[in-house]
Amino acid sequence: MNPRMLTAARDAQGLTQKELGDACGIAQSSISKAENGTRPLTEDELKRVAERLGVTTDLLSWPDDVYGFGSASFFHRKQQSLSQKTLRRIQAQVNFLRMRVQRLSQGVEVDASMTIPHLDPDGAGGPEEVARRLRAAWRLPIGPVGNVVNAIENAGGVIVRHDFETHRINAISVWHPGSPPLFVVNSTLTPEQQRFVLAHELGHMVMHEGEPPREEAEREADRFAGEFLMPATDVAGDLRSIDLKKAAALKPYWKVSMQSLILRAEHLGIISPGRCRSLHAYMNKLGYLPIEPLPVPREDPTVLTDIVQVHLDEHEYTPDELAKVLGMPRSQFINEFTTKRHRTLKAVN
Ligand SMILES: [Zn+2]
C-alpha cells in the first residue's frame, strides 16, 4: 500500500486516525504506523479500512502524488478562515477527483478546439487586458459569454460540480502535468454565481497557475472575471444610471447577477462607491442576497460524463469495471460520474 493514499483517503472522509481505527477495530497506533510507512496494515485490516473509507483496496496502493493547493488558491480569503480539518478534507477530495479524471482521460481523445494559455498580467498590462486577449484567442463574440462552461470545456478544461459541504469555498482549480485543467465548483452555487466563479478560476488558471503566490491574485482574478463576462466597451452603455430595476432587466441578457452588474458599474466609474453601497443595501433589504430573483439558466458540464460514456459504450467497460478503475464502489461511481438522466433511469428500474 501507499501510505500517502491512506492518509488522503482518511482526510477525504474527514476522519482522525483514532476515529478510523475505532470504526474498524484497529488500534490508532497501527493506523499511524501505516501512514508513516513504518508498518503496513494486514490484508484483513486493509479491507476493513478501505470499506470504511469508501474506496477499493487497490486505490490505497495507487502510486500517485498528493498535491497541496496551487498558489492561487492559497490566497482565497474565505479559505483561510476554514478549519485545518475542513481544508485537509477538501484538499484530499480534490486530489482524488484529479486522479480519477486523469485515469478517465487516458485513452480518450478530447476534442478541444482551443487551449487555456498562460498570460502574465504584469506583462499584458493588467488582468482586464488578459481577459480581452483570451476572449480574442477563443473567438468569443462581442457582448455576453453565451456559456462559460462550454467555453472552458472547448479549451480542454474539465469541470466537476462537487458538494464541498461548506459555503466558504466556491471552487478549487488545479492543473498538474499529465492531467487536464480541472475546475471543481461548489454544487450549491446559483447558476449566475457559478458563471462568475468559473470566470474567476479561469483567471487564476491563465494568470497564476504555476507562479509563486502573489498578494493581489484574488483581486486580479475578480478583475479578469468582470472584463471576461462584461467587457467594458460592450457593457458600459447598458450600465448608465443603473438601479435595481435596470439591473433586473439586464440580468437575463448578460447572465450575471444583479450584484455583479452593479459592482461592474462602480468599477467602471459609472456610479459612485456610495451609490453602489446603497443599491447593495437595498437588495439586502428586499431579501435578494445572497440568492437573487430571476436565476439564469444553469450550465451543466458535459465533458466528464461524455468521457465516461465513451468508456462504457465504445471501450465496452461495465460500470463495475469502470468503478474499479476509479477505486470506488459502483453506487458512488454511478452517482458521481454518470449523467442525471442515467441516474433517473436507474431509479425507475
Ligand atoms: Zn480565487
How would you characterize the overall build of this protein?
The protein is mainly alpha-helical. It is built from 20 helices and 3 strands. Among the domains are: 1-63, Orthogonal Bundle (434 Repressor (Amino-terminal Domain)), CATH 1.10.260; 303-348, no CATH class. Helix content is 56%, strand content 4%. Strands 1-3-2 form a 3-stranded mixed beta sheet, with helices on both faces. A hairpin with a 7-residue loop joins strand 2 (171-174) and strand 3 (182-186). Zinc ion is lined by residues 76, 200, 204, 218, 221.
A few lines on this structure:
The protein is mainly alpha-helical and 349 residues long.
What order do the helices and strands come in, and which of them pair?
Layout: H1 3-12, H2 17-24, H3 28-36, H4 43-53, H5 71-74, H6 77-80, H7 84-105, H8 121-124, H9 127-137, H10 148-154, E1 158-162, E2 171-174, E3 182-186, H11 191-207, H12 217-229, H13 232-239, H14 244-254, H15 258-267, H16 273-285, H17 303-313, H18 319-325, H19 330-337, H20 340-348
Parallel strand pairs: 1-3
Antiparallel strand pairs: 2-3
Helix pairs in contact: 1-7, 2-3, 2-4, 9-12, 11-12, 14-15, 15-16, 18-19
The structure holds zinc ion.
